[in-house]
């Protein structure tokens, strides 16, 4: 492929995960989150490799024992010791771009979504993996603050993103839109920018990451969250976002095929009742399958059906994310894909 940002559906070597630890905000929910991640690893390992960074050698050995007992092929697993602040690999993991037919990984600066949370360990995690030989691809460091969840691509030079996040002064204070576009043209081979003005989820710490709102399924198809309940506080913003998506055009001038994703019933924190940013747009594309966040809601099945329509040749597999959403993220936020040629697959 040409020099450009890889789309998520490009064949992958692995999915990258960052394992939680007791010194993080996950402490009260650690065992429940680990159970969710164990299920996630078991599913992904049926299709491809999984790269997991862990806090220490003891955790590494414990997980290898657990995965062996679960019947997971440990030849599909790559575990490295690399301390972290949190689990959101989508935002501190490397972003893959094709150059002359080969993958290169770009290690952008991560600041905990504009300084909201500690991120110093997360920001050095990719370099720690490089030092241990985790990647076969070249890794380059960038000073630009950029999270993987903030951008989505059709793999043909078009980038879909939100102004609320990518142009937020809490990321790159001195950068104007033209500066950001110039950098991403150079780094990622972007030729067209589709900027969303609208779209917001209550409880979202990311300033409207695109992967919570609208996602490319192929170069001509976008799946997006739709709220039909006019009494819901999200209705005005999501209706305005839907209108923006309907007005967008492909490079040849044709409209995008739009696939609406259902709106789950309000998902609330069981302790203080605040609303959590549950969204089905946070799905993950892997080799041969699409993993869909599930919230124990009647809308789960409708989301599965919608994404089966978007990905008719892939298995559609729900992953229970009711624990994950307690920390204001979901399935896609936990993961980062590494395209073929990125991972060191030697024993």
TrEMBL record:
Keyword Hydrolase appears in the UniProt entry: yes
Species this chain originates from: Aidingimonas halophila
GO biological process, one term: putrescine biosynthetic process
Record has Ligase as a keyword: no
InterPro entries attached to this UniProt entry: Peptidyl-Arg-deiminase_porph
Keyword line: Hydrolase
Name of the featured protein: Agmatine deiminase
Recorded superkingdom: Bacteria
GO molecular function, one term: agmatine deiminase activity
Pfam family, one: PAD_porph
